[in-house]
Amino acid sequence: MSQESRYATYPSLRDRIVLVTGGGSGIGASIVEQFAFQGARVAFLDVAVDCSNDLVSKLSATCSHAPLFIPCDLTDIASLQSAIARIEEQLGPIAVLVNNAARDDRHNYAGVTPEYWDRAMNVNLRHQFFAIQSVVPAMKQAGGGSIINMSSICWLIPSTGFPAYATAKAAIVGLTRSMSHELGEHGIRVNAVLPGAILTERQRQLWWTPEYEAKVMSRQALKQHIAPEEVARLLLFLASDDSAFITNQSYIIDAGWV
Known about the structure:
Blueprint (H helix, E strand, L loop, with lengths): L16 E5 L4 H12 L3 E6 L2 H12 L7 E4 L5 H14 L5 E4 L14 H29 L2 E6 L12 H21 L4 E8 L5 H6 L3 H10 L8 H12 L10 E4 L5
Parallel strand pairs: 1-2, 1-4, 2-3, 4-5, 5-6, 6-7
Helix pairs in contact: 1-8, 3-4, 4-5
């Protein structure tokens, strides 16, 4: 196991069973990596098989527990439920759920069809609720757990160019607040994390033009790029016992944009 010594170690995360959706690349891969560095037993779901297998190989050589990767299309709720059941069978009850999977595809509002809208909700929102529903029974039996839903600052800025995505990300905060009260009596905490402009490889390839970078830097208080691992380290705290009485909260990590 390796981790830069200047960052925190959370003993409560050792051997804790963590599920990350969309864990094969980008912020999700960093979340998988950071939990694995803590000695957690990490399972992750993704449709991207090659990069997910590469991540497993990389972490198997450096961490005490090799991550468990299960290919899964999260828009297929039956497949999601089956994958969660398989994780619980192989590893045990899930103690931490990170609802991370999403796609920030750009689209013009004028061209959005009902079919596109439904697809955007399925990709960015619907699976979060059903993943929560699926992990809760075992969390209840275990006496608690931590659920972290990934939202975005895009609906707060507000952004243009992807209204369906922004709507889904706003709804995730509402889901978080509702479910924190639904589940609090069972010791299950539910929080949201709202990243800003995170420099992932996908962002770099698709959207990160010199003009966009200039816009980001003009609006952030801290004039630096935010790497995916910076987001992941915030999630470590929210999953650990150090945050035992934090729930129903939304944490922005955006270098001071909002």
